[in-house]
Description:
A six-stranded parallel beta sheet has the order 7-6-3-2-1-13. Helix 4 links the parallel strand 1 (65-67) and strand 2. With 589 residues, the chain is of the alpha/beta class. The chain has two domains: 26-414, Glycoside hydrolase, family 3, N-terminal domain (TIM Barrel); 426-560, Glycoside hydrolase family 3 C-terminal domain (Rossmann fold, 3-Layer(aba) Sandwich). The chain is built from 24 helices and 19 strands. Helix 19 (411-425) crosses helix 24 (550-560).
Amino acid sequence: MVKMLTTTRDSAIRLIMVLSLLATLALVSPTRPSSAIDPSGQSVEEQVDALLAQMSLRQKVGQLFMVSIGGSQLTEQQLAFLSTYQPGAIVLSLQNLQGRSPESITRFTNELQVTSLNNTSIPLLIAVDQEGGRVRRLEEGFTAFPEPSILGATADPQIAVRIGDAMASEINAVGFNMNLAPVVDLHTRADMLNPYRVLNHRTLSQDPQIVGELAGGMTQGMANAGVVSVLKHYPGHSPTADDSHAQVAAVNLDEATWRSTNLRAFAVAIEGGAQAVMVGHLYYPAIEPVENLPASLSPVMISILRDELGFEGIVMTDALEMGGIVTAYSFPHAALMALQAGVDIVAMGPNANFEDQQRAMDYVYLAAQNGSLPIARVDESVRRVLRIKIAYGLMAWTPLEPETAAARIARDTSHEAITAMFEAGITVVRDDEKMLPLLPDDDVAIIYPVGKPAIQEVCSQYLPEAVFQGYSFEPYDWEFGAARAAANQADTVVVIAENIGWNIEQANFVAGLPTEKMIYVSLWKPYEWEAVAAIDPDTPGFVAAYSTREEAQVALCRVLAGAVPARGRLPMALEGWYELGHGITYPAR
């Protein structure tokens, strides 16, 4: 077993060795899951036994922590911390990644892995938050995957597999082997109105079965690309008006409702092959007997996950530095409580300083020495962590070539997967006059935002006789006159806008057009129907495209023209109008 580093001088020497090693290694493929038998003929359990027998107590405790560090380069202080405490996992956040190229990120993850191997011979789980939509940490050179609700509108697990594979392939190409995604929390209307915007657009659907199936599909896709996905935030963040970043979030569901909704979504996702689950700082008074005890520290909640759902993978906490913990507990106390409750990995969070992380790891180490955290409990969790690392091929880790990192990121593949997702998810919610699909010779006026040129470029290919009229974000008077003239002369008017619920100028613009022959297309959520209905509840057509992205614009034109079938379904109910799962379908022409 490799000895621990004990001085910063040794750390600096090791860093020089790391850089020298990386400079001499050739291109290798990103890590992908391996078979259960290694070349020596050992099974996973035999490999775990052999590793566990070699590990010191400090190294075992290290495997139970996901640490964070600041900056984009390893300092001597950070090398000393990693060498002394030998964590099993690390999460990189915006402060580590923002503005960095794929090549630079690859050098960083390589350096982290070699540092870990020099210390313990066991590679790190290197995690990132890459959900899609507004939660993404990798930007320059990476695909911006859309908000998850469009995947919910497809209700198609195979598309979820494809999206998970594409997303994970990109992050694995630069050295990440764990993604803190997908979100398994259920969508509620309250999320859209929550001032903290904790979930908002991050959820897949309101339907627990669909959420579980899609999350399971994404898990499979990520595994195909060599990345461990993490379901979050068990036992379900919705519905709550609280933000667990600021305080313990209370979820006031009765037990029967919780089991049929939030818990059901996690159960289905786990059946789909999930290997890791993140537990949120969420308090369920109907289930938790200890007042205000968050699920992340709760033996009751962890036992339901283990015993009732049969989950044997890694259970990890949400970031320990969040208000849901630090307002009531110290870092060391919370870390020990989580592990005593049955958690396998304690996540420290991007804003946790070295002192807090060291105190927590020292406290757990002493608890393991004095028996307040039994060695059997430590070994149980270390075994789960090692199993994942072996199953995903980390023990055979070799560095990636930084100079070819950008070429490994298959953005074309991601673009194709996203376009296919929009084609399957764009939802025809209303078509009272049977105007869809539009025919090539239809007399149609398409009124669209001038800042979305792909609409005219693509739709004109399928609808050559259509008249196109653009308008500005805040429409000018002359644009209104031109749009109204075009609309009055057409048999059908397609009006495309982003969110007239808050853009009053565009709402007035739409209200001045002939709504009696209008197909309104929302480049936002289906909730925009409420704004359309406020103008004219008899508007005969409504289509939800879920996004302003170019892929959504392209798919929209194909769906409107019947080049692809209409098959999207509402991932949330429009109360008083349309039920969850509603959608008008038609085949491709």
